[in-house]
Amino acid sequence: MKKRIAAMVLSAAMAATLAACGGSGTAATTAAASAETAAPAEAAESKAEESAAAADAVDTSNAAYTISIGHINAENDSWHLAALDFKEQVEKNSNGQIKVEVYPNSQLGSEIDMIQSILQQGGCDITYTGESMQTYSPDLGMIGMPYLIQSDEHMTAVLEGEVGKKLEGMMEEAGMKVLGYFTRGPRYITSNKEIKSTADCQNLLIRTPQSPMTVAAFEALGAKPTPMALSEVFTSLQSGTIEAQENPFAMIQNQSFYEVQKYLVKTAHLRAWVYIAMGKAQFDALPAELQQVVLDAGKHAQACEHEIFLENEKKFEKQLQEEGMTFIDVDQQEFADKMIAGVLPILTESQKQLYDEIEAANPSK
């Protein structure tokens, strides 16, 4: 039964990828047929296998290069669907000279593990990362600054402008070639404790990423932030080791946090992004014509993911409510005042300068 369910998920995932990202007609037809009919489980499994085979139709048996993509999200997440799109584009446009392997669900370790693997050329070549790169370039931690990015338009202005070029330069200096980026929805707190104001965050055991800025922001609320890998969060919530976490709608839905969390608190405390980041050494090892194939595929995957993301954002909000989560509206300015005040004192001079540049890029100001 688990195998059949997995096959149905894979079939739906492939359908979404090929429909949203312009995949091959044969594969799209097969996937659409699976999605539109209530076929038996055996048929769904067969369709999934056919769709996967269609997406991998290019012969890579004699590939001169192999690129491994690792990420922390599930197979039904837009990040994974974009990875499949990247695979299809690279293998097709390299005429099978490059084989792409995709490892979802933290199969290659945590985000930090994969970054280290890439930089040490240890088996992972591409991952999705942003503020976690601050270990190698401290100013990249500004990606995780609470309430700095005010809107999707502001984020685009940053990423496509002079500040974006500066940030990509920092990534490259740290050993990562940026192939594109995925913008994320606002992050919200989920909890088994009702939270209506910052006072309710006192002593809240909340999982956060391994980001000094995020930790400082939640400490300013009186919470007890506990950094841990995403793969550990569900069981930690289930066992009561932690009582809260914070993520966008997509992560809350796709990681099934609604099964172990009662409340969704609409703080919208962070709007951020992740880069499609390839090890610069691995990128530089490719011939120039294959480098261009990889760069083009990165931009294609970026557009693919964004289309799926936009479709999913409202859908996931509705689904989480249908799953029984209680949404709580809060005074976001109250949260902003405390979180920003908690982080500003720990910023370096160069981080403060970058903070001002990002703030100034807001088109609404």
What's the end-to-end separation, in Å? 55 Å
Arrangement of strands in the largest sheet: 7-6-8-5-9-11
Q: What fraction of residues sit in β-strands? A: 15-25%
The share of residues in helices is 40-55%
Mean pLDDT: 88
Which regions are unreliable across 5 or more consecutive residues at pLDDT < 50?
1-14, 24-53
Number of helices: 14
Q: What Rg is obtained from the alpha carbons, in whole angstroms? A: 21 Å
Assign the structural class, choosing from mainly alpha, mainly beta, alpha/beta, alpha+beta, or little secondary structure. alpha/beta
* Biggest pleated sheet: 6 strands, mixed
Instruction: Count the beta strands.
Output: 11
Bulk shape = globular
Order of helices and strands: HHHEHEHEHHEEEHEHEHEEHHEHH
Describe this structure in words.
By secondary structure, the chain is of the alpha/beta class. The protein has 14 helices and eleven strands. It has a six-stranded mixed beta sheet with strand order 7-6-8-5-9-11. Strands 3-10-4 form a three-stranded antiparallel beta sheet, with helices on both faces. It has a two-stranded parallel ribbon with strand order 1-2. The protein is globular. Mean pLDDT is 88; it is low at 1-14 and 24-53. Belongs to the bacterial solute-binding protein 7 family.
Q: How is the topology of this model organized?
A:
Elements: H1 2-21, H2 25-36, H3 41-55, E1 65-70, H4 78-93, E2 98-103, H5 111-119, E3 126-129, H6 152-159, H7 162-173, E4 176-183, E5 187-191, E6 205-208, H8 212-220, E7 224-227, H9 233-239, E8 244-247, H10 249-254, E9 263-270, E10 273-279, H11 280-284, H12 288-322, E11 326-329, H13 332-343, H14 349-360
Parallel strand pairs: 1-2, 6-7, 6-8, 9-11
Antiparallel strand pairs: 3-10, 4-10, 5-8, 5-9
Helix pairs in contact: 1-2, 1-3, 1-4, 1-12, 2-3, 4-12, 8-13
